[in-house]
Design a protein that fits this description.
The structure is a homodimer. By secondary structure, chain A is mainly α. Chain A has two domains: about 55 residues, Arc Repressor Mutant, subunit A; about 150 residues, Tetracycline Repressor, domain 2. Chain A is about 75% helix and about 0% strand. Chain A is built from nine helices and no strands. In chain A, α1 crosses α5. The termini of chain A are far apart.
Chain lengths: ~210, ~210
């Protein structure tokens, strides 16, 4: 007969497994349909609704948890991006990985927009924004990004180009495979100091590989 | 004693005056408060609600009429912009006048977003968008705007930069007086073909004046 401590440990392991199954199911269900119900998510996770509500008091709390996890995972991937060297090359790499993250968690974010407050959304965006800000500041200090417009405006422009690409894909006016290059090419040009030549994204990528 | 024809004419003149007063009042009230009520608009116009509803069957119809008039007026101002000569100079002039129009009718558009369908909004945006498209196409044909990204993407980027500037002003991160130059500088850089130098908006304006 197992000790009380052993039972407690087994219960905790069960709970962790359930939470993971619920979050995985929520990610799948909400990506497919931002309006997916708690019942559907519980069914997909193979747990009862009572169990689900034991871990997440409301649908909003569950959406918050799954979006937070997705953003943290995306953020971990972005942490692996090499932001050293020429700030323009680094920007292209950052855009490529950011776009991958957006594609992976895009539908989840749609669900989040409905369920989470604007303030919470801003909180969740803070780290990715800080990373872009840091890179923009470095590029300005090194003279490869323009300083005649504010860093805030440049970072906001990058942000809007990404959202714009998502909207253009949605409208069938941009091929998904071209999105990252289009965003990077536009941002790089927009960031170039007046009087300096606009870099070619292809040329940057080639230089990076060689 | 006036003839029946004379009475009819006087009545028609009255009706025209009332419609103009109602549209002017609606523009003022809705700019101040996008949720302004029909009663408030009638009061400001100095007409009764019955008279107002005699001309506009619903609040949505009134909002449609006042936004349509504002966009047509803005469009008439944009028609006066000289789009000839170097497409880059023309883009700066177009951005400056477009921004003026956006500032003038911006709050009205907020009211419109609530009251009008997305399709109707797209319809009302069609002419300003066509003008920008024509200019972008000419700049591409003449080699001063890039052709490695689609014209649709470039026009959409210009559109998003304008909306972005409005959002940044709203958030207190951009001075209203700097908006037009910021938008024009960013769009010009974004439109520059890779390998070509980014033009200075100031230099363009100087060249234009000299």
């Amino acid at each position: 007969m197992p000790s009380h401590g052993g039972q407690r440990q087994a219960k905790r392991a069960d709970a962790r497994r359930n939470v993971r199954a619920i979050l995985d199911a929520a990610a799948v269900c909400l990506s497919r349909d931002p309006d997916a119900s708690v019942a559907e998510i519980a069914r997909t996770a193979g747990v009862g609704r009572v169990t689900l509500y034991g871990h997440f008091a409301s649908r909003a709390e569950l959406v918050d948890a799954v979006v937070t996890r997705a953003i943290e995972e995306g953020d971990a991937a972005l942490d692996q991006v090499d932001l050293s060297g020429d700030a323009r090359d680094a920007l292209v790499r950052l855009v490529e990985q950011s776009w991958l993250t957006i594609v992976q968690i895009g539908s989840l974010v749609t669900a989040a927009f409905d369920a989470l407050s604007e303030e919470r959304m801003r909180e969740l965006h803070a780290r990715p924004m800080q990373r872009a800000e840091g890179l923009v500041e470095r590029g300005r200090a090194e003279g490869v990004f323009r300083t005649d417009l504010s860093a805030t405006w440049l970072v906001g422009t990058l942000h809007r180009l990404m959202h714009g690409a998502a909207a253009e894909i949605e409208a069938g006016r941009l091929a998904p495979a071209e999105a990252a290059t289009t965003i990077a090419a536009t941002a790089l040009a927009a960031f170039t100091p007046p009087g300096r030549p606009v870099p070619e994204v292809g040329a940057l990528a080639t230089r990076e590989r060689s």
